[in-house]
Amino acid sequence: MVEAMQIPVERVKESKLSQVDFNNLGFGKYFSDHMLEADWVNGEWKNVRIRPYEPLVYSPALSVLHYAQTIFEGQKAHKDENGNVHIFRPYENWKRMNRSAERMAMPQIPEEIFIEGMKQLIRLDKDFIPSGYDESLYIRPFMFATEETLGVKESSSYKFLIITGPVGAYFSAPARIYVEEKFTRAAPGGTGFAKTGGNYAASLLSSAEARKQGYDQVLWMDALEHKYVQEVGAMNIMFVIGDAIVTPDLSDGTILNGITRMSLLHLFREKGYKVEERKVSIDELVEAYKAGTLKEVFGCGTAATISHVRELKYKDLVMEFDVAQMTISAAMKKELLDYKENKLGDKYGWLVKV
Ligand SMILES: *Cc1c(COP(=O)(O)O)cnc(C)c1O
Questions:
Q1: Based on the number of CB atoms within 10 Å of its own CB, is 214 exposed (0-12), middle (13-18) or buried (19 or more)?
Q2: How wide is the angle at C-alpha 80 spanned by C-alphas 79 and 86, nearest 5°?
Q3: 8-state DSSP, 325
Q4: What class of enzyme is it (predicted)?
Q5: Residue 285 reports pLDDT greater than 60
Q6: Which of 180, 256, 305 to mutate to test the pocket of ligand 1 (most atoms within 8 A of CB)?
């Protein structure tokens, strides 16, 4: 056993805890008192420390501001009925962050900083963790290029940070989405599988247009043929077709490998459902809809766990769904949430105690 690294801590002079309205948390509104920080300089991680959450001051030539060499993760810690705190599958986020780092020519982040640092940070700010059902501490690890240069090349220095904040229960109204036919999100050989800022920047025009038309999101299609569905915004997409759970496969690197997706597929398989990870064409979905076999459509991701889709528009066809009938995904949503809140016993070793 490697002894846990003891990270130096500079505490806040005055806590912001009293400013948090725990009855009205929302999402991404509040931040805990402290943040974890580390610097990559001269080929190694240095200055690992926990200090007050506060603004960072940088040069206008900071390379990330110009060329977007930046990656992030999103995860949650829940408090259980006994007041114990568990992070859900943080090793998966750590591995994914390092896959993103590799694609973006950034350094690997060691386990002692990512996992151990996260635990110590959460322990210090544990009073910020809400205890209501589906309430949690949202955790945002991220890394960005810090070299002061306008040269286009990978940076020689980076900053890694973890910030956290309490978030409320996520009541997402069933979504209306349309199939995006003009813009694309990710092509083979690109960065679709990486959680990197540019992917989201490139999607904002499309989601703004969707909102203008009264929709919540768009469903992205493959860049080559505009024929196969990929995912929605910051969520993977799943369908119940006949008696099978169907979701696009990850093989061409255009789709983000969601940990909610991975966990749901595991639970569906354990329950004996037929699970198919494969190409899913929009034509297949339209045909299944017309035949009455497309029964459930839902997005899945850390924020909402599962978000049901009540309307899916493709060209002139508006496919409407009765969300009250989406019983398979509704039951699974509750099961995964109960799992995260440690109500089911940690059968698969997915919970890491802080
Ligand atoms: C983060 C993200 C997801 C969901 O991943 P989870 O690990 O389940 O939160 C899906 N798609 C995109 C594009 C994402 O950024």
A1: exposed
A2: 55
A3: G
A4: transferase
A5: yes
A6: 256
The domain boundary residue, chosen from 139, 169, 199? 169
Single out the residue in 105, 136, 169 at which a domain terminates: 169
- pLDDT at residue 169, as a whole number: 85
Structural domain tally of the chain?
2
Same domain, 111 and 185: no
Contact 340, 76 (CB under 8 A): yes
Is the pLDDT at 1 greater than 50? The verdict is no
Is there a contact between 241 and 294 (Cβ–Cβ < 8 Å)?
A: yes
Examine the domain organization and report whether 260 and 119 are in the same domain: no
Nearest CA, atom 1, ligand 1: 234
Query: Is there an atom of ligand 1 within 6 Å of 235 CB?
Result: yes
Instruction: Ligand 1, residue 301: give the atom nearest the CA.
Output: 8
Distance (Å) from CA 18 to ligand 1 centroid: 32
* d(CA 301, ligand 1 centre) in Å: 5
Decide: helix, strand or coil at residue 282. helix
Between the CA of 304 and the centroid of ligand 1 the distance, in Å, is 11
Residue 20, number of CB atoms within 10 A of its CB: 19
Residue of 87, 136, 231, 236 to mutate, ligand 1, most atoms within 8 A of C-beta? 236
The CATH number given to whatever domain includes residue 99 is: 3.30.470.10
Instruction: Give the distance (Å) from ligand 1 centre to CA of residue 235.
Output: 5
Indicate whether 235 belongs to any domain.
Answer: yes
34-59 confidence digits (pLDDT tens): 999 999 999 999 999 999 999 999 99
| CA angle, residues 258, 250, 322, in degrees to nearest 5 | 65
- SS3 of 94, please? helix
Q: Name the token pair of 61.
A: 């030539």
Cβ–Cβ under 8 Å, residues 94 and 23:
no
Within this chain, do residues 159 and 216 fall inside the same structural domain, yes or no? Answer: no
Residue 255 lies in a domain: yes
Q: Percent of the chain beyond pLDDT 90?
A: 95
Span 141-146, average pLDDT: 98
Range of the domain at 321: 175-337
Distance from the alpha carbon of residue 8 to the mean position of ligand 1, in angstroms: 32
CA of 75 to the centre of ligand 1 (A): 10
